[in-house]
UniProtKB/TrEMBL annotation, chain B:
Belongs to the binding-protein-dependent transport system permease family. LivHM subfamily. This is Branched-chain amino acid ABC transporter permease. Signal peptide: none annotated. GO terms for cellular component: plasma membrane. The lineage of its organism: Bacteria, Pseudomonadati, Pseudomonadota, Alphaproteobacteria, Hyphomicrobiales. Its main location: membrane. GO terms for molecular function: transmembrane transporter activity.
Length: 357, 334
């Protein structure tokens, strides 16, 4: 039983994992991810990789929506920028005669930088408008970016409507041509991203974001430059989404513009709401739910229908309805998400048997 | 010059229908302060209801034959001695379809009104007084629910639905160039304009409209003055859903019935923000302007450019005037 926060030194107070549950969870997750490439079957690797990619993106969305309080419905566009940068940069580097083995080391930072740049441009309206207006502005930006990708005139670079074939990552001669090897990279980068973002909120920049979320005018009066920090928030979150997009491009053999449309933006926000906004673990829980729902449905439908076509075609609509109901349910009954449920459970566990909840 | 006039007319006609859709978003916002992201999907439901009641139900075995096609003796006689492609022939075609058109419209309006009531009662009322974020995201969740439900109920797409009015082609010459219009389009525009005008007048002059404006001004004061705020809310949603049903039926006759009708709602949302969320006049002007610009983009650059016009327009307008062309500036307290 924990009877209080008994910390004897500043170092103990500043630790990221400041209690046993957090340490246990993070170590177990790290061990699981490290073991997974050796023991899991292909299907589990596929699902886990999808989760990893989504997780990086949702962590990015969390920066802008959860911590800075700027409602954005266009983050799929940043993933698109990240994903399309990879094959385009690879082609440019091949033309310049660079060896394959160092390309990812340029392509991934390149994708991140490009996304951050686009993020700053898309974030510009946030200086003038907020709330609903910003939501529509980012949504418009999503439509416009996908439109540009699909545009006939840019098709020599972007592949237009039919998409692009993407290269495999080659890390200094280690060719990541199986999903298992890609998973190792995705898991490592997901850990790094979460850690980096978690640490961001222990710095001046992160605290400025939170001040802007609480009340932007008050933050400005306190000397926080709204221009600088709002754009920085957009840049950081777009950079995370760009990284997710780049990994997406390496992971799959082909990317299509329709994969990055509004539906993906809504999925990212849905994962954030379900998991819990403005919390480090929120995206983790949310992504687990959002990625697992389609898989569980697939199994249930397989068990019920056993391959009957007319039942199987009901799966996509039901999946959509469940996504929508999840958003609505959590907003109505548990606006702080699964993270809050977990918190309550752990607290009850701590105080048992003296108090519940 | 002739082409310019042709495209301008097409654009303005599309703009009038945008205005009819936008009126639903504005009405709901005025009364409840909720911006309905899912309005496009409510319109899609309207279109599918119209399709159900004007095509599927009359085509069923148990339906009376006059519902499918109403052909009294005098009409058969009249049609027999008409020349091919005469305007009168189009009118007669429309007359024989009239029962199912009316049935379809009535069915669409009633079903959509029930849908609007259900949404308001189940999702919106528990959220009275909650943050804007929660309200917006609830309507975003509603998008998924509605589009999934559509997939469960209606599996067939893009079928022909009967036009609301006789679809006679109308030709005339301006500046020595021929201009070409369809009768049904003109009637659609007339319906859109009349409904838009009626709603503006209703909000301005009737008791219910005054109640809506009072609620928009201050909910708790309106409540204490004896206005039933929940009833105002449900009235606004029914208003939005019924105008959405008619807009859906019109869109269905123009572009066919398909899930892409839902995406229409986003461009109309852009138009609404452009005009100013709480201003009917601003939204009307913005709708016509976007319709015109879309037609120009289509004329000059090709069809796919027309799709992004509303989004580019709203970005420009928001950057210059954050509350839209005619929107009221919100006063914020710290």
């Amino acid at each position: 039983m924990i009877t209080g926060n008994l910390k004897a030194s500043y170092a103990a107070d500043e630790r990221v994992l400041d209690n046993g549950y957090k340490q246990g969870f993070v170590l177990a997750a790290a061990a699981l991810c490290a073991l997974m490439p050796f023991i899991a079957n292909d299907y589990i690797i596929l699902v886990a990789s999808q989760m990893g990619i989504m997780l990086i993106a949702v962590v990015g969305v969390n920066v802008v929506i959860g911590y800075t309080g700027l409602l954005s419905l266009g983050h799929a566009a940043f993933m698109a920028i990240g994903a399309y940068s990879v094959p385009i940069l690879h082609r440019a580097m091949a033309a310049a005669g660079l060896p394959d083995a160092i390309m990812p080391f340029i392509a991934i930072p390149g994708a991140i930088a490009l996304s951050a740049l686009v993020g700053i441009v898309v974030g510009l309206p946030s200086l003038r408008v907020k709330g609903l207006y910003l939501a529509v502005a980012t949504l418009s930006a999503n439509f416009i970016i996908i439109f540009l990708i699909e545009l006939e005139a840019l098709a020599p670079w972007t592949g237009g409507l039919v998409g692009l074939n993407t290269p495999d990552a080659n890390l200094l001669g280690w060719e990541l041509d199986t999903q298992r090897e890609m998973f190792a990279l995705i898991a490592a980068l997901a850990f790094v991203t979460i850690l980096a973002v978690q640490n961001l909120f222990r710095t001046r920049v992160g605290r400025a974001f939170i001040a802007i979320r609480e009340r932007d005018y008050s933050a400005e009066i306190l000397g926080i430059s709204l221009l600088r920090y709002k754009l920085m928030s957009f840049a950081i979150s777009a950079a995370c989404c760009g990284l997710a997009g780049a990994l997406f491009a390496y992971f799959y053999a082909r990317i299509l513009p329709e994969q990055f449309e509004l539906a993906l933006s809504l999925q990212l926000v849905a994962a954030l709401i379900v998991g819990g906004m403005g919390r480090t673990m929120g995206p983790v829980f949310g992504v687990i739910i959002i990625v697992m729902v389609p898989e569980i449905l697939k199994f249930t439908f397989g068990a019920i229908a056993g391959g009957a076509a007319e039942v199987a075609q009901l799966r996509a609509p039901i999946q959509e309805i469940i996504f929508g109901l999840l958003i609505i349910f959590f907003l109505l009954f548990e606006p702080m998400g699964i993270n809050h449920l977990v918190d309550r459970g752990l607290r009850a566990l701590n105080r048992w048997p003296f108090a519940r909840g | 010059m002739g082409e310019f006039i042709q495209f301008t007319l097409n654009g303005l006609m599309a703009g009038a229908i945008y205005a009819l859709i936008a009126v639903g978003i504005v009405s709901v916002f005025k009364a409840t302060k909720v911006v309905n992201f899912a309005h496009g999907y409510i319109i899609m439901f309207g279109a599918y209801f119209y399709f159900t009641f004007s095509v599927i139900v009359p085509g069923a075995e148990w339906a009376p034959s006059w519902l499918q096609s109403w052909e009294p003796a005098w009409m058969v006689a009249m049609r027999a001695d008409l020349p091919m492609f005469s305007p009168m022939g189009a009118v007669l075609d429309w007359l024989s379809n009239l029962p199912r058109i009316l049935f379809g419209l009535a069915g669409a309006v009633i079903c959509n009104a029930l849908l609007g009531l259900a949404i308001e009662r189940a999702l919106m009322r528990p959220l009275i007084g909650q943050s804007t974020f929660a309200m917006i995201m609830i309507t975003v969740g509603l998008i998924s629910v509605l589009s999934g439900t559509k997939g469960l109920i209606w599996t067939a797409d893009a079928e022909f639905v009967p036009h609301i009015a006789p679809n006679t082609p109308i030709r005339f010459t301006v500046f020595d160039t021929p201009v070409f219009l369809f009768g049904a389009d003109l009637v659609n525009v007339a319906i859109a304009l009349i409904l838009f005008g009626a709603i503006v007048v209703m909000v301005r002059y009737t008791r219910g409209g005054v109640a809506i404006r009072a609620t928009a001004e201050d909910q708790s004061t309106a409540y204490s003055m004896g206005i039933s705020v929940p009833r105002v809310f449900s009235r606004a949603w029914v208003l939005a859903a019924t105008t959405g049903a008619i807009a859906g039926a019109i869109l269905a006759t123009r572009n066919g019935v398909s899930p892409s009708l839902g995406l229409f709602g986003f461009s109309v949302l852009a138009i609404v923000l452009m005009g100013g969320l709480d201003s009917y006049v601003g939204v009307f002007i913005a709708a016509l302007a976007v319709g015109f610009l879309e037609a120009m983009a289509q004329w000059q650059f090709g069809g796919e450019f027309a799709e992004v016009v509303p989004y580019i327009a709203v970005l420009i307008v928001i950057l210059i005037r954050p509350h839209g062309l005619f929107g009221q500036k919100e006063v914020e307290r710290i």
